[in-house]
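Final report, Chapter 2: Outcomes

The project's central promise was a pipeline that accepts a single protein chain and returns its three-dimensional structure in a standardized token representation, suitable for archiving and comparison. That pipeline is now operational. To close this chapter, we reproduce one record exactly as it appears in the project archive, with the input sequence first and the structure output second.
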Amino acid sequence: MATVPNPVSKEQYDILDALLKTKWEGMLQAQSRLINWLFAVPGAGIAGTLTYAAKAGSTPSLLVALISFGLGLVVIILYGTAMYYAERKNVIGFKGDMDKFLSTGSITWEDIFKNDYLRPVEHKIGEVFAWISALCSLSGMTCLIITVLSR
């Protein structure tokens, strides 16, 4: 027996469409904002470390600071990639539920929102990368401060 497409009101369709767009755009904006902030600290740290080293000469602690800031930049790229794909997976799941609702009626209006709430969010690896990047930046700043104060 073939399933009949779910009769959906214009209002329900508009709500689903707006939710899908909002989920995707919100995710991209949040990612962009966080990545920009997390890039700023190690990027400025590298510039500051190189500037100080050019004037005062290189030391082992400046090298550690430079490596820490550089590692922080690499890890933030991993963070952005991991979070993008985790959110993309959630948006695809929401869109799949939307399609099931609109085309086949195999799930209900309430199921769309219940499934979205219950869908696992795989942000843990991204959060780990964000913390590693932050710790690298703190390590770099600590080494740079120690170098400047010890001279």
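Archive annotation: The first helix runs from residue 10 to 56.
This record, like all others produced under the grant, will remain available to the consortium after the project formally closes.
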